[in-house]
Amino acid sequence: MSKRIPHRLYLSEEQMPKQWYNLRADMKEQPDPMLNPGTMKPVTEADLYPVFCEKLAKQEMDSSNRYIDIPEEIQDFYKMYRPSPLIRAYNLEKALGTPAKIYYKFEGNNTSGSHKLNSAIAQAYYAKDQGLSGLTTETGAGQWGTALAEACAYYNLPLTVYMVKCSYEQKPFRKTVMKTFNAEIFPSPSTTTNAGNAILEKNPDTTGSLGCAISEAIEKAVTTPGYRYVLGSVLNQVLLHQSIIGLESKLAMEILDEYPDIIVGCAGGGSNLGGLIAPFMQDKLLGKADPRIIAVEPASCPSFTRGKYAYDFCDTGKVTPLARMYTLGSGFIPSANHAGGLRYHGMSPILSKLYHDGYMEAVAVEQTKVFEAAVFFAKQETILPAPESAHAIRTAIDEALKCKVSGESKTILFGLTGTGYFDMTAYNAYLEKTMNDYIPSDEDLQKGFDGLPSIPGIQ
Ligand SMILES: Cc1ncc(COP(=O)(O)O)c(C=O)c1O
Question: Residues in the chain with pLDDT < 70?
Fold first, then answer.
């Protein structure tokens, strides 16, 4: 007799993973090393100390330890909202009339509303542990800023957030939540940093980008004694912290005697996707299983599908180390569409390498189709998804509809990274039919590629 699959599977506290999984330990070829832009030599752990906490710098450079203990204090914090549920989308399946089995891992079930808290609390913990006096960061959609504000308030650490200007204007209540947790917030680009002023001088009407906000946050960190900068995505350390999503998902699926044929996640800088796929990608790398893995990005900011695999700066002000990744160029300013958290010019170097080596696929989807899926999903599953998460929903639905045509009963797992209750401007634009689909032309993208750094002997 086949097992009855519940609508929601919650692991117990005891079943929550006690270690993060470091995917790099199983990669046959490593991502190319970050380069110091001054010397064009690979960065060392010590090079990162002025910007990052020391233990996080260590995690950033660690490509050999497969499992890394989650400090008990972080486990205790996680227990306030984890393990997160693995949900079988019975109603969605029925409404689609698909023979596919659709599962989603819901990370919006915490006060910050997204998966970002998994890394925020870890980064705040290591900052406190090092005795730092404060942190700075950027935020696009505001989800990361909110999560980090909560984590910093928990450890009584001051936090300065540079929020991408168009999101700052579109989402006034995100600011209120962050302020409730004591964070100081500036719209980026701002006039409070040299980087912000330089960007404004060139382009006074810019709506900002994550790349601009990163430059400002780094400048503030390195010019304020006892401060360090933290980033909510892209970095190896962030994917490491987010591996808890995939580890819990895999365990829950094992309990249900299930294994995904297709895994889908939205991709901004790659942290939720990198976390969700981590243990499944391990199976793929070790030849134990071969699930299809699909990254979903907005057609307006298509780093995987139309970007170049090249060394580039992680920020617009060109102060960070150079990372080899899929990029649209650090000067690329995406249109002010609504999936704020997916509007980053680059992509995690780990995911970039895996994509480049053929271990995963990517698709780009248009904004109105994403919102169509979001509204359909909300009605069936009663969760109002974040616009970012709805990119994954769009592709999961498309794959389930293909199963309807082929008659195959594939098992699809997607990451529902967060809720969209602060994204009412975007939902409103969709419902009132004022939302536009913007797809950059090849000429638009070429402007970004023209700004890629030239590195003698490399590119
Ligand atoms: C809800 C949500 N999902 C996904 C993302 C994308 O980030 P990442 O690719 O790092 O998971 C964001 C970023 O802000 C977000 O807020």
Answer: 1-2, 337-339
CA of 10 to the centre of ligand 1 (A): 23
Per-residue model confidence (pLDDT) at position 337:
67
If one residue of 342, 348, 365 were mutated to test the ligand 1 pocket, choosing by the most ligand atoms within 8 A of its CB, it would be 342
Nearest CA to ligand 1 atom 4: 388
Q: Which residue has the tokens 């009132």?
A: 432
Looking at residue 317, its pLDDT comes to 84
Residue-wise pLDDT tens digits, 264-313: 999 999 999 999 999 999 999 999 999 999 999 999 999 999 999 999 99
How far is the C-alpha of 186 from the C-alpha of 160, rounded, in Å? 8
Pairwise CA distance, residues 30 & 350, whole Å: 8
Q: In this structure, what CATH number is given to the domain that contains residue 105?
A: 3.40.50.1100
Q: Is residue 311 included in any domain, yes or no?
A: yes
CA of 270 to the centre of ligand 1 (A): 8
Q: Is residue 442 part of a domain?
A: yes
Domains held by the chain: number: 1
Q: What is the 3-state secondary structure (H, E, C) of 210-223?
A: HHHHHHHHHHHHHC
pLDDT of residue 319: 86
Q: Which residues sit with their C-beta closer than 6 Å to ligand 1?
A: 114, 140-141, 143-144, 233, 266-273, 341-342, 386, 388-389, 417-418
pTM recorded for the entire structure: 0.97
189 cis-preceded (ω within 30 degrees of 0): yes
pLDDT score at 190: 96
HEC sequence for 138-200: EECCCHHHHHHHHHHHHCCCCEEEEEEHHHHHHCHHHHHHHHHCCCEEEEECCCCCHHHHHHH
Q: Which domain holds residue 404?
A: 8-15+70-113+236-450
SS3 53: coil
- Is 107 part of a structural domain of the chain? yes
Is 45 domain-assigned?
no
In angstroms, what is the span from residue 204 Cα to ligand 1's centroid? 27
What pLDDT is attached to residue 2?
65
pLDDT tens, residue by residue, 34-52: 999 999 999 999 999 999 9
40 class by beta-carbon count within 10 Å (0-12 exposed, 13-18 middle, 19+ buried): middle
